[in-house]
Specification:
Elements (H helix, E strand, L loop, with lengths): L6 H9 L4 H12 L1 H17 L7 H14 L11 H28 L1 H5 E5 L6 E4 L5 E4 L4 E5 L3 H5 L2
Antiparallel strand pairs: 1-4, 2-3
Helix pairs in contact: 1-3
């Protein structure tokens, strides 16, 4: 056994008080199968003396009996209902703002298709198009006509 590794140093390691060099020494020491069992014994001893949760055993036992015999569900006092309310508050403004952002992005990328009507012909094809103001346009082969969808015939009449 390494004389530098003792119970107090291991307890400091579990508490997070060991230095980087000490942690490396403990990790190397604990890899040895002869020391591994002692390491876990000291870990169990440290965890028993430094409890992280102190349950109310009498209350838990009475709630368990009520659940078994009276069909009453236990109540958990440490659960915060505020967390669900916080999510509801976020949903009030988060979802509409995401939807508005998506609409703005879609409008930006598809504004040409939304604002203009496009007529096209292929190779060797001729097409006659009737516009909303009543005029007729003949498209020759391999040509394109782009007309505004909104307010086209109002501006033509002026």
């Amino acid at each position: 056994m390494n004389p530098l590794i003792n119970k107090q140093l291991i307890f400091d390691f579990f508490s997070g008080k060991a230095t980087v060099l000490q942690r490396k020494q403990i990790e190397a020491w604990s890899q040895d199968p002869q020391n591994e069992e002692l390491f876990y014994e000291w870990l169990q001893e440290w965890e028993r003396s430094h409890l992280q949760y102190h349950p109310d055993q009498e209350k838990a036992y009475s709630q368990f009996k009520d659940f078994l015999y009276n069909d009453q569900r236990p109540t958990f006092s440490n659960v915060e209902p505020e967390s669900t309310d916080r999510w509801r508050n976020y949903r009030k403004w988060l979802l509409p703002s995401i939807a508005a952002s998506l609409l703005v992005l879609l409008g930006y990328f598809y504004q040409d298709r939304l604002l203009n009507q496009r007529y096209a012909t292929g190779y060797g094809q001729v097409k006659v198009v009737q516009l909303t103001d009543g005029s007729r346009v003949t498209l020759n082969a391999n040509s394109t006509l782009q007309v505004p969808r909104f307010g086209f015939w109002e501006s033509v009449g002026k």
